[in-house]
Amino acid sequence: MPFAVDAATHTYYDLRAGEYDDWFDGSGLFAERQRPGWTEELDRLVRALGALPPARTVDLACGTGYFTRYLRGFLVGVDQSTEMVRLTQERLPEGLAVVGDALNAPFADGVFDRVFTGHFYGHLDEEERAAFLREARRLGSELLVVDSALRDGVEPEGWQDRVLQDGSHHRVFKRYLDGDRLAEELGGEILLDGEWFVVARVRWDS
Ligand SMILES: C[S@@+](CC[C@H](N)C(=O)[O-])C[C@H]1O[C@@H](n2cnc3c(N)ncnc32)[C@H](O)[C@@H]1O
User: Is the C-beta atom of 102 inside 6 A of ligand 1?
Assistant: First the structure.
């Protein structure tokens, strides 16, 4: 299990929480990154999320709540990192953020309409992906996955060295996905197959 139950992953994201949104905003360590079209595509993505019908939603591995806050309905964020959860809670005045395991979430079966996840699925290996999909299906009848799009110049999958502002180095497993691949893995449909982001949805009959 390379990511979701790895103590090193948890330490990394806890340490990164305060600077995590620099990745979205192109600030801090990301200020020099050349990402043509990033801002426009991110805007398009968050507008699409905001246009989804309101639903009782859980965001698994919500991070700072960057995406969670754009969803509508009764919102619950779950993350293993206390610091991430604190940041998400600030963004969810009407919702709730809780510390928990996205692969073993502290909720009864079927309590959500929608399960959402951003940039988590693409970090999971095959075994963790299967566990995640089982958990998503247990919790809700719809799953929406946002992740990093496969593009020129990136390794489709592998271990990456990540550096934080404090100079510390961390290793994470990461995959980049095209829309077809993601939709096929989920058994669903592509909602966005962009240069930077890919979004797919699956609806289960239950
Ligand atoms: C790349 S970040 C994604 C954050 C956010 N969803 C986004 O799209 O920006 C991955 C997140 O997964 C969380 N995480 C890792 N393993 C987890 C687990 N087993 N259960 C819940 N969260 C986990 C980390 O703490 C981190 O916030």
Answer: yes
Q: What is the DSSP letter of 92?
A: -
Average confidence (pLDDT) over 164-189: 97
Half-sphere exposure of 181 (CA within 13 A, CB side): 14
DSSP 101: B
Question: Does the 7-203 domain belong in CATH 3.40.50.150?
Answer: yes
Domain residue limits, the chain: 7-203
| 55-85 residue pLDDT tens | 999 999 999 999 999 999 999 999 999 999 9
Could you tell me the pLDDT band of residue 2, with boundaries at 50, 70 and 90?
confident
For ligand 1, the distance from its centroid to the CA atom of residue 153, given in whole angstroms, is 24
pLDDT value of residue 5: 86
Extract the tokens encoding 33.
């990154």
Q: Is the distance from CB of 13 to CB of 80 less than 8 angstroms?
A: yes
pLDDT at 177 (0 to 100): 97
How far is residue 28's CA from residue 60's CA, in Å, rounded to a whole number? 26
- Cβ proximity of 196 and 176 under 8 Å: no
Is 0.90 topped by the overall pTM?
A: yes
Q: Would you say the CB of residue 63 lies under 6 angstroms from ligand 1?
A: yes
Distance 121 CA to ligand 1 centre (A): 9
- Residue 151's φ and ψ, nearest 5 degrees, are -150, 170
The C-alpha atoms of residue 76 and residue 139 are separated, in whole angstroms, by 12
Mean pLDDT of 141-147: 98
